[in-house]
Amino acid sequence: MKSSSAFSLIELMLVMAIIGILLTLWLPQAQQYFERSRSIICMNNLRQTGVIVNNYISDHNYFYPEVETDPANPVYLQNTLPGMQDTFQPYGLSQNLLRCPSDMAANKQYNLRGTSYEWRPFIDDENYNAPQIYTRRGPHTVSPRRLRLVTDIDAVHFGRQNALYADGHVLAITTTP
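RE: above sequence
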């Protein structure tokens, strides 16, 4: 009697079906892992940007610069201000730090503005030690740990934005419409 060590067609199809089932179970989880890794890269970009901003303000008597958030739609109409790239480039800010991988995957803001991040205009020309935000009730001094400097333009991380705070920490925040 002759013994065959080859697979039969049914055995081969059964193995392929099991692999297919395992892949369908693993694929959504893998996409979450990939998105989480892109979010971590984005947070790292923001942390490095925070170091660059702190180097800038230490060289400018602890005052934040005036930065235009969107040159196509300027905040300050009287004069043209430089964007983040122009302001912080001498301190090491590069195009790579202005690219959020999740924004690049969605092909959104970076292609339109040249950055995936938005400078918050609330702190333009404010003192680092006592930044003030102006509201309807008047000026309020805000702690650097509560003051957002830079955020993702869009909520591209599981419906959240990563935000750099004035004291250097980065958090994922839920946005409100």
